[in-house]
Amino acid sequence: MAMRAGVAKSEISTEDPSMIVHDPLFAKALVLDDARTRVVILAMDAVAIGGICDIGDEWLPELRARIESELGIPGANVLVNASHTHTPGPMLVGHAEQLERTLDAVRRAAEGLEEVAVGCGAGHEDRWIINRTLRTTDGRGWTIRQANPCPPDDEVAGLGPIDPEIGIIRVDRADGSPLAVVYNFACHPLVGVPGNYVTANFPGFASEVIEGCLGGGAMALFLQGTGGDVTEVSYKDFDHPRDSAPMGRMLGLRTLEALGGIETGDATLDVVSETIRLPRRQDSDERIAELEEEQRALLRSMVGMTLNFRSFLPLFLKYQLNPEWPADYSWRYMQAQARGSDELTLLDELNRKNLDRYLHNIRAMEKLARLQSNIGTLQHHKRLNEESGEDTLEAEVMGLRIGDCAIVTSPAELLVQVGLNLKAASPHRWTFISPFSNGYTHYGAPEEDYDLCGYETTECLLDGSWHAIYEQAAKGVLQRLWERREG
Predict the structure, then answer these.
(1) How many C-beta atoms lie closer than 10 Å to residue 285's C-beta?
(2) Are the CB atoms for 249 and 203 separated by under 8 Å?
(3) Based on C-alpha coordinates, what's the Rg of the chain?
(4) Is the pTM above the cut of 0.85?
């Protein structure tokens, strides 16, 4: 029997009158059925599936239970991914309404099953993404965030990795027209829209482009990739309005370009799921103490100075505009030299010394602000771990095979290197990594990244040894999917 599929969506945007919705947020459902296995892929315009913000921890178990009891689809076969769109305030309707609207989308998708052909492939987009944890000259990392300044240019040594692959699953109707496009891409959706309104961010704009170009009721479902340490390159820009629409449109067009080269045919489904326990970090006190010592060292390094900001800025600009003769016109220097005076050069020496002292203190202040933010973040996550009363946390690793493509999930915000490792080790022709799925456990960084001391290993509940445990489980899930396919 041929594969069958159905799609449907429900709007889940907040109805809070104090919030302005720039563009609608959706729960999009794709139901696939190969006569042996039925699966649900839910793409949610949300920050996370549980843990924080609009979706509580109890939402996913309730949704799965109702899908199983009312629609007969095993809860373990339901993959729910959050796009991780960020906006201030409540983005979604309340818990009960979220549940009903999302369930309704799944129900309508399941009721509308039709014969389909499936194909997999990949596109490429690297023009507007960057690994946000910059590698610095001291061998550590400094994360590009709104909560702290960027490092001085002369302290930036290089960039971390990105994953520019757009993983694509194409689902066509029997007549060859597109029914659904599932696309997987790794990047934080942070830029938003002018006015800082509620928005689906670049995934929403990308899906709008894909659906508009394909027409015929085709649905685009975005699955967030291993973008824990990837952001838009314009995230810290201050010289033009913050608008993720152009980036989303570029992603949508690149997806469409690749879509045209993907052939579809018969496909089968399989699901493997494993629940693992990951160790919670126990070194928060030591890490906080290290950061506090860095603060004290920076404070000790600050020097007395005669300038304040009012006197510093015009003097700094003056010495930047004409470094060779900053104090006055060149002919004034010549006149002083002709009469044997070095008064202007001595003035320059004094001014440059005062400027250097002020700049040193500014750099120290910027680093102190970053350290203070990181200490607060560490203290918050230490409290979360302590309040849990457990040394480990539960994480689901789900593997879903659709034809030649395997998707493997994580509830953590996986950093890009974790995903690259899994893709390199996978036996499948196409492997897409879908973190932010089926739960939320904050960041998941490679163990070696903990020494970088970037934001992702500060805003983190997990001990560094989590990585080996997760990677082993994810590779095992991918291998079992492969062996069952071959069998």
Answers:
(1) 11
(2) no
(3) 26
(4) yes
